[in-house]
Design a protein that fits this description.
Elements lengths: L4 H11 L4 E5 L6 H8 L3 E6 L10 E4 L7 H4 L4 E4 L7 H11 L2 E4 L12 E5 L2 E6 L5
Helix pairs in contact: 1-2
Length: 134
């Protein structure tokens, strides 16, 4: 089920400050990527399966566990929605290699498996991992 624009507004407020973002594991939830395009953010979406994405979003088939680092090299931020715990560390490593901020949400009661700053948003918690350890 797609989120209303109001429900994704906190995500957009956070992500729209970046020029180039990559959504990892876009799946069928394309509303955030589409809204970012409307905010003039360059969006690339990845998934392990071929996916339909909104106009303006670049799609690349990639597995974050065995990534093509060239896809992520120019990203300012890498984000993922409902990211399962087993993908937190691999995605953080890709973000660190690209020197990009890593932002994500989890599903239900899953806790982050990497060091994060927690930001409470209307729809739950947005986790933010900086590219380099502090």
């Amino acid at each position: 089920m797609a989120h209303s624009r109001r429900n994704i507004a906190p995500l957009l407020d956070t992500l729209s400050v970046y020029d180039r973002v990559i959504e990892v594991g876009i799946g069928r939830r394309t509303d955030v990527a589409a809204a970012l395009i409307d905010e003039d953010v360059s969006v690339t979406a990845t998934d392990v399966h071929d996916r339909e994405v909104p106009d303006g979003v670049r799609f690349v088939r990639d597995d974050i566990v065995d990534p093509d680092s060239s896809i992520y090299a120019d990203a300012d931020a890498i984000y993922a929605l409902n990211l399962p715990p087993e993908l937190h560390r691999p995605t953080l490593e890709v973000a660190r290699t690209a020197d990009a901020v890593f932002l994500f949400t989890t599903l239900g009661g899953d806790q982050p498996t990497v060091p994060v700053e927690r930001r409470t948003i209307e729809t739950g918690t947005l986790y933010v991992a900086q590219p380099r350890g502090r």
